[in-house]
UniProtKB/TrEMBL annotation, chains A, B:
Gene3D superfamilies: Aldolase class I (3.20.20.70). Keywords: Lyase, Metal-binding. Its EC number is 4.1.3.4. InterPro entries: Aldolase_TIM (IPR013785), HMG_CoA_lyase_AS (IPR000138), HMGL (IPR043594), PYR_CT (IPR000891). It comes from the Bacteria. Residues 7-274 form the Pyruvate carboxyltransferase domain. Pathway: Metabolic intermediate metabolism; (S)-3-hydroxy-3-methylglutaryl-CoA degradation; acetoacetate from (S)-3-hydroxy-3-methylglutaryl-CoA: step 1/1. GO terms for biological process: ketone body biosynthetic process; L-leucine catabolic process. Belongs to the HMG-CoA lyase family. This is hydroxymethylglutaryl-CoA lyase.
Amino acid sequence: MTFPTSVRLVEVGPRDGLQNEPEAIATATKLELIDRLGAAGLAHIEAASFVSPKWVPQMADHREVMTGLTRRNGIVYSALTPNLKGLEAALECGVEEVAVFGAASEAFSQKNINCSVAESLKRFAPVLERAKAANVRVRGYVSCVLGCPYEGEIAPAKVAEVAKALFDMGCYEVSLGDTIGTGTPLKAKRMLEAVARDIPMDKLAAHFHDTYGQALANLYAVLEEGVAVIDSSVAGLGGCPYAKGASGNVASEDVVYLLDGLGIESGIDLDKLAETGHWITQAIGRPNRSKASVALASR
Amino acid sequence: MTFPTSVRLVEVGPRDGLQNEPEAIATATKLELIDRLGAAGLAHIEAASFVSPKWVPQMADHREVMTGLTRRNGIVYSALTPNLKGLEAALECGVEEVAVFGAASEAFSQKNINCSVAESLKRFAPVLERAKAANVRVRGYVSCVLGCPYEGEIAPAKVAEVAKALFDMGCYEVSLGDTIGTGTPLKAKRMLEAVARDIPMDKLAAHFHDTYGQALANLYAVLEEGVAVIDSSVAGLGGCPYAKGASGNVASEDVVYLLDGLGIESGIDLDKLAETGHWITQAIGRPNRSKASVALASR
């Protein structure tokens, strides 16, 4: 057991959390959310996705979001850029970090981005090259690391292979996504151990969904292994597109409560974060999926 | 790390889960719930509470429940009996196991049962004596083991002291309750270690609430220490009386999903259990608080 002394949270609420919302959310609301998250101490915020509005209409205002946000000192505002076109647009907006999105499941890759895993990695190569030339860091996501909605079980070796490819290509950090939340702690540990054979632990992030209520147990298990970067979403924004009505991203507030209890530094003010969660869920008419936040507010 | 190979779940839904419901629930509904839980593989079900209907009106039909249930082979149906009067009534109903309820917090004991912790233990002595004479096992609960709504932090030594008193008095098992769900994994481990200095690990149970979303992480942490008995409530029935609208008991379905994933035997059929959770929450008009169950139903 080698708990980290501090953990960096990557807040994905403004992107992963909002991207599937059916009703248009005002750019001003997104900007206020990002600003409030920064004020609560989140030092890494994924702010937008530079994808075609044909696929993700909710992210159509990515330019307005990236250029409209008030930059706070020391905070990284990143954006998802699945291809060169998205990257160029993001660069025009002065983005300093981008992310690419691969899968550990062939079936998921085919259904989600209409190509094989190998083909998707090939497509990322020019993105990484261009980003490097522009001095912009690239984060790599691997989805389906603990299960796939189409294939079921995913071999840890397959996750390790895709993660290594992204790392070797130049991603400074690889985020391991339990996209459908089916993982449990020992599976999470075994998967992480397989990946960490090729990639240093401090270059790995855990991106776990709470669909089956297991996210915090899984996070605790990988914290024991030394993972020091966690992706989460304020108020658990996002839901699960593969199980209607079910939870998706683990709530940032619940993660911070866990870290506070473990004595692990995150730099985040839980009360301010909880306030932000209550504000955004009221603003967009969604339930607050953070249990810690609901409990704190109802004492 | 010494994970148990099997875990016994103590299902507290029919008692702890329903006791605070404001609307009367038909005895027939309670009996059907208990029967369905048994059919799903729950081998230990806390079925009723022999307290004054003045204090807990929902449990006023305790006699009808205890005498009306269809006993299945190998299943223990227990009842809460806070005093000798309750125990006598339970014995008349042919109960084979009862439980007494102490607190690790002086303030909680005063507010909840109107006497000091020491006084409450004294009052249990004749209950244990009488139960022993009747050849009825007694389970001991300790509440507030990871925090108190009035006192805040509770010293592990205080928990150990109360648990030991109950064990020495003749309780065959002591259930450690995080009544307000404020615990986190390392606190849970430290508390358990303190208690396990005096009581063998196989005589201890974890009764954790999910009010702050931490229950499953805490359970995983104490499973690592070897705890092999877990209290839970189907569909997370119960809520938290100290934080309105917040979660209470951890959902049995989420615990079983965790155990299945860890390869720990529980003897429970998750699908049947989930079905029971959907049935009872619809029957009493409550949200289903089991994330695993909601996810399984919405795939």
